[in-house]
């Protein structure tokens, strides 16, 4: 049975991070932690709640080898029968042959028989107990790493970064991509310290008060979301990666208990506008190709729209119902969020319905959407 160890703080956060990983790595099916999976692309076989990649992770390979050596069936017999009586379990020829194939990338190196044999070991009592214990240890390592990353971030941003939604996002990002540290190129580490982070989708920087809009500006600018290969389109356009990031972030929001804008009026307006710029920069026009957009729209973007309509229309006593778009142009400060934004002179395209349009600074042009 999976249990978490540590202080009350550690146990609580381990549970939250675990819940995110179960949704994002296993699709909510915890039984998949105890069998081999293959995520595709350049990865190898994986297992565990965090989907440890055997081809890329020597620790994961070591855990698998230990399970293959020691897993027994209900009758107390080794699941992986001894292939050579002249060797110990650590050097058994059958286990060695299975490991040689299991660590290869591509997800096709094992035969069906070999894969089934490994799955028997992983799902055995010894296999499950080992995976559960190492998962608890791994969650502790992730939590410590994220806490240290936050402690090194810009001091004024640490309160937000310690919020459930931000910390869970960072933990999930670290599990999927790994947050590199100097001397390696460390774009997210730099970004959290308000140093420009170079990504596939441009060089990005937080703007104003750090919020969810800043997390997403970074997240949606990654190579994975902008230029990785997409099976759905057959192009290096990042479409599948962007959709996967929407899925993962939706689950972060769920485990965090939902998304809320700041209560401070100025901070709320800034974040609401920032979120709509994220939508305009990365998602607008692609909604029909992003199966997880609807959940993101409901759980995040709608709060931004409602806040701005409430502040500038309803609270101002304007008797017009906004049933179209809420459109936000650029100002001088917002341009720094991405080097691909070169000017605050915007072409703002409205709809046939009643739109709320913020031109912000610059000499903007308004036009009607073509019918």
Write the layout of secondary structure elements.
Blueprint: H1 8-26, E1 37-38, E2 45-47, E3 52-53, H2 58-70, H3 93-102, H4 112-122, H5 125-151, H6 158-161, H7 164-177, H8 187-192, E4 197-199, E5 202-204, H9 212-219, H10 223-226, H11 239-256, H12 265-283, H13 293-314, E6 326-328, E7 347-350, E8 356-358, E9 365-368
Parallel strand pairs: 6-8, 7-9
Antiparallel strand pairs: 1-2, 2-3, 4-5
Describe this structure in words.
Helices cover 47% and strands 7% of the residues. It contains 13 helices and nine strands. It is elongated, with a radius of gyration of 24 Å. The N and C termini lie far apart (59 Å). Strands 1-2-3 form a three-stranded antiparallel beta sheet, with no helix packed on it. The chain folds into two domains: 8-136, no CATH class; 152-368, no CATH class. The longest helix is centred in the middle third of the chain and has 27 residues, at 125-151. Helix 9 (212-219) runs parallel beside helix 12 (265-283).
Summing up helix and strand content along with how strands pair, one would put the structural category as mainly alpha
Give a quick account of the main beta sheet: strands, pairing sense, barrel closure: 3 strands, antiparallel
Number of domains: 2
The helix content, as a percent range, equals: 40-55%
Q: So how many helices? A: 13
- Could you give the order of strands across the largest sheet? 1-2-3
Basic shape: elongated
N-to-C span: 59 Å
Low-confidence stretches: none
Roughly what fraction of the amino acids lie in strands? 5-15%
Q: Radius of gyration, rounded?
A: 24 Å
The total of beta strands comes to 9
For the residues shown, what is the average pLDDT?
93
H/E series? HEEEHHHHHHHEEHHHHHEEEE
């Amino acid at each position: 049975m999976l249990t978490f160890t540590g202080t009350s703080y550690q146990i609580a956060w381990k549970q939250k991070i675990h819940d995110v990983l179960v949704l994002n790595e296993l699709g909510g099916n915890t039984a998949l932690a105890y069998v081999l999976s293959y995520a595709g692309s350049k990865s190898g076989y994986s297992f565990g709640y965090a989907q440890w990649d055997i081809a890329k992770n020597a620790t994961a390979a070591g855990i698998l080898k230990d399970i293959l050596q020691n897993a027994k069936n209900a009758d107390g017999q080794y699941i992986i029968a001894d292939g050579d009586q002249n060797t110990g379990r650590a050097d058994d020829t059958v286990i060695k042959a299975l490991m040689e194939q299991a660590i290869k990338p591509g997800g096709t190196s094992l035969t069906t028989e070999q894969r089934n044999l490994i799955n028997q070991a992983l799902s055995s009592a010894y296999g499950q107990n080992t995976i559960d214990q190492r998962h608890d240890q791994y969650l502790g390592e992730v939590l410590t790493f994220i806490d240290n990353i936050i402690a090194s971030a810009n001091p004024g941003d640490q309160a937000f970064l310690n919020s459930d939604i931000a910390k869970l996002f960072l933990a999930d990002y670290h599990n999927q991509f790994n947050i590199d540290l100097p001397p390696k190129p460390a774009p997210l580490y730099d970004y959290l310290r308000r140093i420009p982070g170079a990504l596939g989708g441009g060089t990005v920087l937080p703007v104003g008060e750090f919020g969810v809009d800043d997390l997403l500006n970074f997240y949606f600018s990654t190579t994975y979301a902008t230029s990785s290969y997409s099976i759905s389109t057959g192009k290096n356009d990042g479409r599948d990666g962007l959709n996967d990031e929407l899925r993962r972030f939706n689950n972060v929001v769920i485990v965090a208990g939902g998304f809320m804008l700041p209560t401070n009026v100025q901070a709320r307006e800034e974040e609401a506008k920032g979120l709509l710029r994220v939508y305009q920069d990365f998602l607008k026009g692609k909604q029909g190709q992003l199966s997880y957009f609807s959940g993101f729209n409901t759980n995040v973007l709608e709060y931004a729209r409602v806040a701005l309509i409430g502040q500038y229309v309803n609270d101002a006593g304007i008797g017009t119902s906004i049933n179209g778009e809420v459109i936000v142009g650029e100002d001088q400060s917002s341009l720094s969020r991405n080097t691909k934004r070169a000017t605050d002179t915007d072409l703002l395209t409205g709809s046939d319905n009643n739109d709320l349009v913020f031109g912000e600074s610059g000499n903007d042009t308004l036009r009607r959407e073509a019918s």
